[in-house]
């Protein structure tokens, strides 16, 4: 099942057309791959080929086992009528449309394609991590935010469909009371099944959306912690440069990183506002991350000399990494004041 676990992660970032071509609904539906994942990966499919007709018998055995397992899984879904009926239909389709040897070769081919996809994904991730791991991390976060937005849109669409079906059911109920018939009764039951399906799907998406929000906040915290570590490392390298250590003073990568973290935080807070139910843990987490990010993004880009003579002039430069991203359209003005050693000690004592 390890292979399918990796594939389920990848499916979230694959387009629908690619998924449909990999798991054709008519011959190898994705539900079959999902519910029988462990069993599928435990079998030996590599030995099957269309040329070896003597393998028809073991192929027939595997096909029969898969149909039986699907039916078993379906019967286990006692609390989900829709899922149970769907799985039963899938088992019937396999029984009626599949030739054993073609079925075995098809499973082998799908598993081979999955391994190629996973292998390419691992190669790509390794290469991107070496080149720029923080950018890849932000991209993943952005994809999660996009998926949360997609869930919200789907839930809105389901809400509209639910309301329409409910109104339709109420109208049919009024007509049925005046002129009852078996046909109208069946139609009403069909509409009620649609209503229940919409309710189930809305609940499922709502739970997945909240789970993804929490997961995104955790991911954002890890990325922000990495940013703060990189920023502290930059400050330490800057400090060592005073005594001659080589140092690159380019803050642009860190600024880009901090701005992207702020954008993700803002997007998650916006999505959280649209959930319409209290999720205080997520809200407090985002607020805490935002506070730390805002406070940490003030950087002394050019430090003054370590030893300053009396009545001498010197220069220093401060930089706010979030810049205009904090308040779009309104440039942020950063003011800095130099204080003496006594003032610094008094301030440190007050903060401590």
TrEMBL record:
Protein name per its UniProtKB record: STAT transcription factor protein interaction domain-containing protein
Pfam families: STAT_alpha, STAT_bind, STAT_int
InterPro entries: p53-like_TF_DNA-bd_sf, STAT, STAT_N_sf, STAT_TF_alpha, STAT_TF_CC, STAT_TF_DNA-bd, STAT_TF_DNA-bd_N, STAT_TF_prot_interaction
Residues in coiled coil: 124-168
Primary localisation category: cytoplasm
Entry keyword Phosphoprotein: yes
Species this protein is from: Ataeniobius toweri
Annotated localization: Cytoplasm; Nucleus
Keywords of the record: Coiled coil, Cytoplasm, DNA-binding, Nucleus, Phosphoprotein, SH2 domain, Transcription, Transcription regulation
Domain STAT transcription factor protein interaction stretches: 2-124
SMART domains recorded: STAT_int
